[in-house]
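Key result, reporting period 2: structure in, sequence out.
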């Protein structure tokens, strides 16, 4: 009787092993960052109720394994949670560390990643104080981060950080970037890391936040590379700005970035210019990158389902 009960589990395990690509194969991992514009803004025909479905479609178009959103309010987060139930969502409101204010949410596929740890800190002189504003910032600014176990690929431990730097305070952006870099070094400890967000600063060496995060991360043990460096000639041939104010004509340069450590070499990168019915999903274009990772051998508990590699344990 015991053998009879175990037989179905054995069949599932064998099916999963047979369906899974061999260890060592390259696996593309798509990551997206998207400022979705806060839902209570009085944007007339571009208000949230007229474009909520476009945000979902723009994300679905790329099928990311991980994506982060900025300016997301609690109600918008609930909508996205329902629409993307196959993802685990992490994040808090910037005003109180719970539900109030804009959020920098991180979405990670449940069938691929297991959440090992998570946290938030504020870009201020008191980083652990919810709602705190730093330097000359107009608003509280925070960073949400997760530590993940990747069931499919190496590196099997990954840290993801999502943020939104201040739009008004130049000192807040520079000091916030320095604080972010230092905390990333403390949290990730030199392990594989991704940083995404709306940095309200162009991706240019003359921009202090870009220099601090994309060029001098090594100073705190988090050497990061801008995924845009591998963008195709066709992609680079288009205007590379990401804020367009619902016009489709970008300005202010590429202020939305995805940065990654050496353990995650980018293979492709671009800006999504998705639109439908004459309408844009947000006042920012989403940005995306594809990283090539190496599949590791199946480990106990990593895969039971032959189609997804998911384990019911998590």
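The corresponding designed sequence is given below.
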């Amino acid at each position: 009787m015991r053998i009879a009960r175990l037989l179905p589990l054995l069949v599932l395990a064998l099916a999963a092993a047979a369906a899974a690509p061999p260890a060592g194969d390259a696996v593309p991992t798509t990551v997206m960052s998207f400022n979705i514009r806060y839902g209570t803004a009085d944007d007339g025909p571009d208000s949230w109720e007229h474009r909520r479905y476009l945000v979902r479609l723009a994300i679905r178009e790329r099928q990311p394994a991980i994506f982060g959103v900025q300016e997301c309010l609690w109600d918008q987060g609930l909508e996205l949670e329902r629409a993307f139930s196959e993802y685990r969502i992490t994040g808090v409101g910037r005003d109180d560390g719970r539900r109030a204010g804009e959020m920098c949410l991180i979405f990670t596929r449940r069938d691929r990643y297991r959440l090992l740890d998570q946290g938030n800190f504020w870009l201020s002189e008191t980083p652990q104080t919810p709602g705190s504003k730093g330097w000359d910032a107009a608003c509280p600014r925070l960073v949400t981060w997760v530590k993940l176990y990747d069931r499919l690929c190496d590196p099997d431990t990954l840290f993801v950080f999502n943020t939104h730097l201040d739009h008004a305070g130049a000192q807040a952006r520079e000091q916030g970037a320095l604080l972010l870099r230092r905390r990333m070094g403390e949290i990730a400890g030199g392990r594989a890391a991704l940083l995404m967000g709306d940095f309200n600063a162009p991706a240019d060496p003359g921009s202090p936040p870009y220099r601090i995060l994309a060029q001098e991360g090594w100073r705190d043990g988090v050497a990061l590379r801008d995924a845009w460096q591998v963008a195709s000639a066709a992609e680079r041939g288009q205007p590379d700005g990401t804020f367009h104010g619902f016009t489709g004509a970008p300005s202010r340069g590429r202020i939305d970035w995805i940065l990654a450590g050496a353990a995650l070499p980018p293979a492709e990168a671009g800006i999504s210019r998705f639109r439908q019915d004459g309408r844009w999903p947000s006042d920012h274009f989403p940005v995306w990158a594809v990283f090539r990772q190496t599949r590791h051998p199946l480990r106990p508990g990593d895969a039971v389902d032959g189609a997804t590699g998911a384990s019911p344990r998590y």
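Residues 9-19, 304-310 have pLDDT under 50 and may be disordered. Helices lie at 2-19, 48-62, 74-83, 170-188, 208-215, 233-236. This case is discussed further under Risks and Mitigation.
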